[in-house]
Specification:
21 helices; 57% helix; six-stranded parallel beta sheet; 535 residues; mainly alpha; Rossmann fold; 6 strands
């Protein structure tokens, strides 16, 4: 990183030389300055010849300050200042992403990233000589919208909000690329036109795809169930080829800016068709991928308008999004192609719910669980999407506090794809002020789950389904899971026996060491805390 920053600083502080060389003279001026007197009595005949008029010496022109020099100086100074501002913003972006790699520093990292973006926006507006009232108005409107989202959107709606933010990034890149395409119309700027086309293509796919993802996460009826039609993959391929063909046309004919808007329409349709068939279980992967798309679109827009900080920010977001997508796919033991083009669901020859559950489910009550927790040494809480729906994170924290006061060791087991977005459970538990030290990743806690007295599963299903390890024909076969079935006792807090996103029954619920505590997660935990206090 130090090498990168050093090279970037040297590049940023380079300024082109400007202005004429002082003291230079033209040949005509030098000749005029050296002209001497002509003799008055010079004659070639006896005829009287009038004396030739004396040529006065022509003084050198007075050296006047160049009228363009102050403008060039101001322009160069503004250019250097903008580069320095962009450098600081880029460093803040890098430090922000670094801070968000750990829950303890995530808030600080978020603030550094936001500060870097604010600095980049202000510097860009200043060097373009944007009127101050436009800057102030933009900051007030944008800040007001951001403040509204920050204060009004519930933590359970964070996945939808993240999806919308990805979409906002995509449409912003489309608009920037569209304006640049109009500016380049009638010119032969082939590379700039192609960069605008790429930014528009990726941005439009990101925008419409993110809207569909947000609709799925919001459980809107039109988007909730995976939707597809016969031959959809062929249609998607045709749309992609059409978009690429239009982009190449803009590369070959830089003046063909009319191609841009048909490209945006085709790309928008492609975004809808790509995300509609994907189910809710794959939303963490889809959100991470769309986040990467928004960054790549921004980087392409930066190339189109020759903006350094936009290229840097877009590249950082694009790269980090791709890395996160890979992590999510690995956590599900699925390839990205399988997530995008295959359907996750039960197989025809798989066991039914009746085969798995009939006569084997052991329901329990809050009072019985309170007696079970009396005298235990170690408890692990496994949060899932049901915890988010019930908004039970605060009750889970209160339960942990009560148990810790009795000397019980309490930890939280976090599966990478639990919930609807990457880090969903971490965000919910952070809102409830759960200590970061108690959050344990799957790989760290799995080897010790056999030593746990009681595991309390709150609203999780597929991420604790042992079928992933036992049935090679299962749709979740090979997916890494939390091995909670190895604990001495498992308490599952759930509304019903309905399946998870994979659509398959969970044999854990019928295991000998499992007790089902049915009900709303928040209310059940409240009843359990009451029973513990009364006991």
């Amino acid at each position: 990183m130090l090498h990168f920053l050093t090279c970037f600083l040297l590049f940023a502080l380079q300024s082109p030389s400007a202005g004429p060389v002082e003291g230079s003279h033209t040949p005509a001026t030098e000749s005029a300055a050296s002209v001497g007197d002509v003799p008055a009595n010079a004659a070639t005949s006896q005829d009287t010849v009038q004396p030739a008029p004396k040529l006065a010496s022509v003084p050198p022109p007075e050296s006047k300050p160049s009228e363009t020099e102050p403008i060039e100086t101001v322009t160069t100074s503004r250019h250097d200042t903008s580069r320095l501002g962009y450098l600081v913003a880029a460093v803040l972006f890098i430090l922000g992403i670094k801070g968000m790699t750990h829950p303890r520093t995530a808030v600080r990292g978020n603030m550094l990233g936001a500060l870097g973006m604010l600095l980049a926006v202000i510097v860009t507006l200043l060097i373009t000589e944007t009127p101050p009232w436009v800057i102030v108005t933009g900051l007030l409107v944008g800040g007001g919208v951001g403040l509204f989202f920050a204060t009004q959107v519930q933590m359970t709606q964070m996945p939808q909000l993240v999806a919308l933010f990805n979409g906002f990034g995509g449409i912003a890149s489309v608009l920037v690329a569209g304006v640049e395409s109009l500016k380049l119309g009638g010119t032969d700027e082939h590379v700039g036109s192609f960069a605008a086309a790429v930014a528009g293509l990726i941005g439009a796919v990101t925008f419409t795809g993110s809207l569909v993802a947000a609709g799925k996460l919001q459980e809107l009826k039109i988007f909730w169930k995976p939707w597809s039609f016969t031959g959809q993959q062929a249609v998607n391929a045709a749309l992609l080829v059409g978009c690429l063909g239009l982009a190449v046309l803009m590369l070959l004919f830089g003046s063909a800016n009319w191609v841009f808007w048909p490209l945006i329409i085709l790309a928008g349709v492609l975004g809808v068709f790509l995300v509609c068939p994907i189910g809710g279980a794959d939303m963490p992967v889809v959100i991470a991928l769309l986040n990467s798309y928004s960054g790549l679109a921004a980087a392409a827009a930066g190339f189109a308008i020759n903006n350094i900080v936009l290229i840097i920010a877009g590249s950082l977001v694009g790269a980090s999004g791709l890395i996160l997508t890979r992590i999510m796919c690995k956590a599900m033991n699925r390839s990205l192609a399988n997530v995008l083009f295959a359907k996750l669901g039960p197989t025809a020859d798989g066991p039914s719910a009746d085969d798995v559950y009939e006569g084997k489910i052991k329901a329990t009550s809050a009072e019985e669980v309170a007696m079970l927790l009396d005298g235990v040494n170690r408890v692990v809480i496994v949060p899932g999407y049901g915890l988010a729906v019930a908004q039970a994170q605060h009750m889970a924290r209160e339960l942990a506090n009560f148990l810790e006061a009795k000397g019980v060791t309490v930890e939280y087991a976090i599966h990478p794809v639990a919930g609807r977005m990457p880090g969903h459970m971490n965000v919910l538990l952070a809102e409830a002020d759960v200590p970061y030290e108690q959050l344990k990743e799957m790989d760290a806690i799995n080897p010790t789950l056999s030593q746990v007295d009681v595991v309390i599963v709150i609203g999780a299903n597929d991420v604790v389904n042992p079928v992933a390890n036992t049935d090679p024909d299962s749709p979740i076969a090979g997916m890494p899971i939390l091995n909670v079935h190895e604990a001495q006792t498992v308490i599952v807090v759930k509304r019903s026996l309905s399946p998870g996103f994979a659509g398959i029954p969970n044999p854990l619920f019928a295991a000998d060491n499992c007790l089902m505590l049915f009900g709303d997660g928040k209310q059940v935990l409240l009843d359990l805390i009451t029973a513990l206090k009364e006991g």
